[in-house]
């Protein structure tokens, strides 16, 4: 289980000082130093009935890295994100976030499956953006963003609103904060959903095919926002996408999945220009 | 109709008042039961689902009339509690229609897209917060039309109490009929009375429904169908898509 070359992982950062630093002042103290391991999957197996979606997967992601998961549908990419978000429980294996288990908790020196209360605590550090946006239609845009910071993190309402306004500016939707989600286009809704996830100041942002449900002409706006976030913050990203150009732009590491296993991983230039594996070549020629 | 004296009219109007009271009290009890049992039937613990499911099946599957007799005649014998006929009736109607209503609540909760709960989990809301802030507000507009049906059923169901001697519209009518020996005018009058009450309830529920829909971003004028709202995701409107260009 050591960090051998068979365990897909993102490389640690070469130098911690390089690059524009994240504008997240109040978390600076708690921020783990660059180059530390943030996410670790150990022998994670997930089955749906007789179908094994993930087969003893080992994987690690270093703090601040952007990892893109690619592969044919049904290869288990989305399952990884859903396991991270504790929307699914693994059948075997463990997932760690920092030095805490996400799937299990330690009780009396033994690892037991995590209780709901425990996983809720750990997953506060994880944000997710969904394919179908999943904005709350019963709340206006501003409240969609402030509701969780206020009622989950216990943030002061004014502070949460100020933060929400900043985020809406980041995603270019300040004019729409007083609208209901149904009054927005898909692209606008998805940008609100990104702002909503960021409002929780997560360490990890999970992006689950965030442009797949959008009309083609709305995709660019959403990807621009994400590029912006990827390049100006040190948030760790785990991204499932079919937008290969986007993956090439923002990723530090691309992982190619097939049948529940990582068959190849590496920096995007390598995966996209000279893939080592035949299956990767086939997949890329089909989607590019 | 000239046979019906002022005194007899008064009897009928007093009956209307009793019927309204019965309906309001029973509906209040039924609403509490409907939400309590309906939410319990979606609980993650099987024992809670089992007990609430048992309640639902028992009260849906028994006759309200017999249950009312049971409340009125058996409870005093078995347990020494003598209920006033009015309260025996409210209890029976409330518990029975609450059981029907719980199915409406459960169904409306189940119709909220799974993605909404997932978004709630992703934002670390507790199960209670997910229910209160996300699921119930979205399920509510879908509950109103079936609740309206049940409310009108309940209104008409209150006529059962006349058998226990509670002086509602139906009881008043039978007194008037005995006094005048004419069935046709009396029963025509109370048909109209029930209709007027039911119609007022429907108009009231329409207002409630319009407010509820506005609360989930469905403008009252837009007349969007329930089905489109309950499908996979929030609908993308053409107008909104056109505005996308301006926003960037």
From TrEMBL, chain A:
Keywords: Amino-acid transport, ATP-binding, Cell membrane, Membrane, Nucleotide-binding, Transport
Domain ABC transporter as annotated: residue spans: 39-284
Membrane topology note: Peripheral membrane protein
Recorded coiled-coil stretches: none
Protein localization: Cell membrane
InterPro entries, alphabetized: AAA+_ATPase, ABC_ATPase_HisP-typ, ABC_transporter-like_ATP-bd, ABC_transporter-like_CS, Ectoine_EhuA, MetN_ABC_transporter-like, P-loop_NTPase
Record-stated family: Belongs to the ABC transporter superfamily.
Record protein name field: L-cystine ABC transporter ATP-binding protein YecC
TrEMBL record, chain B:
Cellular localization per UniProt: Cell membrane
Gene3D superfamilies: MetI-like
Stretches for region Disordered: 225-248
Coiled-coil intervals: none
Keyword Ion transport attached: no
Ranges that cross the membrane: 16-40, 52-73, 182-201
Ranges where the ABC transmembrane type-1 domain occurs: 16-202
Membrane topology: Multi-pass membrane protein
Pfam families: BPD_transp_1
PANTHER family assigned to the protein according to its UniProt record, in alphabetical order: L-CYSTINE TRANSPORT SYSTEM PERMEASE PROTEIN TCYL, MEMBRANE COMPONENT OF AMINO ACID ABC TRANSPORTER
Family of this protein: Belongs to the binding-protein-dependent transport system permease family.
NCBIfam families: ectoine_ehuC (TIGR03004), HEQRo_perm_3TM (TIGR01726)
Stated name of the protein: Ectoine/hydroxyectoine ABC transporter permease subunit EhuC
Organism: Streptomyces albospinus
């Amino acid at each position: 289980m050591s960090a051998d070359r068979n365990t897909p992982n993102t490389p640690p950062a070469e130098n911690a000082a390089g690059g524009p630093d994240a504008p997240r002042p109040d978390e600076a103290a708690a921020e783990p130093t660059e180059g530390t391991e943030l996410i670790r999957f150990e022998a994670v197996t997930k089955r749906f009935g007789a179908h094994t979606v993930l087969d003893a997967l080992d994987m690690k992601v270093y703090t601040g890295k952007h990892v893109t998961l690619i592969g044919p549908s049904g290869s288990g990419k989305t399952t990884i994100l859903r396991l991270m978000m504790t929307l699914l429980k693994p059948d075997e294996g463990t997932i760690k976030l920092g030095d805490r288990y996400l799937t299990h908790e330690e009780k009396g020196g033994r690892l037991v499956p995590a209780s709901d209360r425990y996983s809720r605590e750990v997953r506060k550090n994880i944000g997710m953006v969904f394919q179908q946006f999943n904005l709350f239609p019963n709340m206006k845009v501003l409240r969609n963003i402030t509701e969780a910071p206020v009622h989950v993190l216990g943030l002061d309402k004014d502070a949460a609103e100020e933060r929400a306004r900043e985020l809406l500016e980041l995603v270019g939707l300040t004019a729409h904060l007083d609208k209901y989600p149904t009054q927005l286009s898909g692209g606008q809704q998805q940008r609100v959903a990104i702002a909503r996830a960021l409002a929780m100041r997560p360490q990890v942002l999970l992006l689950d095919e965030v442009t797949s449900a959008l009309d083609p002409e709305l995709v660019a706006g959403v990807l621009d926002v994400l590029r912006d976030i990827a390049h100006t913050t040190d948030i760790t990203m785990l991204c499932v996408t079919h937008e290969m150009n986007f993956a090439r732009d923002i990723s530090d590491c691309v992982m190619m999945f097939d049948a529940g296993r990582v068959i190849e991983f590496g920096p995007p230039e390598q995966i996209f220009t000279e893939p080592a594996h035949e299956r990767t070549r086939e997949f890329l020629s089909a989607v590019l | 109709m000239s046979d019906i004296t002022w005194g007899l009219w008064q009897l009928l109007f007093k009956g209307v008042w009793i019927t309204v009271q019965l309906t309001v009290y029973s509906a209040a009890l039924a609403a509490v039961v409907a939400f309590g049992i309906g939410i319990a039937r979606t609980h993650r613990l099987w024992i809670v689902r089992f007990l609430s499911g048992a309640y639902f099946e028992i009260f849906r599957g028994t006759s309200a009339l017999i249950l009312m007799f049971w409340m009125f005649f058996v409870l005093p014998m078995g347990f020494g509690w003598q209920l006033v006929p009015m309260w025996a009736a409210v209890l029976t109607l409330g518990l029975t229609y609450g059981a029907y209503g719980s199915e409406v609540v459960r169904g409306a909760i189940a119709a909220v897209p799974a993605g909404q709960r997932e978004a709630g989990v992703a934002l670390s809301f507790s199960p209670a917060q997910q229910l209160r802030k996300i699921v119930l507000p979205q399920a509510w507009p879908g509950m109103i039309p079936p609740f309206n049906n049940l409310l009108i059923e309940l209104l008409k169901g209150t006529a059962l109490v006349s058998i226990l001697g509670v002086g509602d519209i139906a009881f008043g009518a039978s007194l008037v009929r005995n006094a005048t020996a004419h069935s046709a005018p009396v029963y025509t009058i109370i048909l109209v009375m029930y209709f007027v009450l039911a119609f007022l309830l429907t108009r009231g529920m329409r207002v409630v429904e319009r407010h509820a829909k506005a609360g989930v971003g469905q403008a009252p004028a837009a007349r969007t169908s329930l089905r489109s709202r309950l499908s996979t995701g929030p609908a993308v409107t053409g107008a909104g898509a056109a505005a996308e260009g301006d926003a960037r």
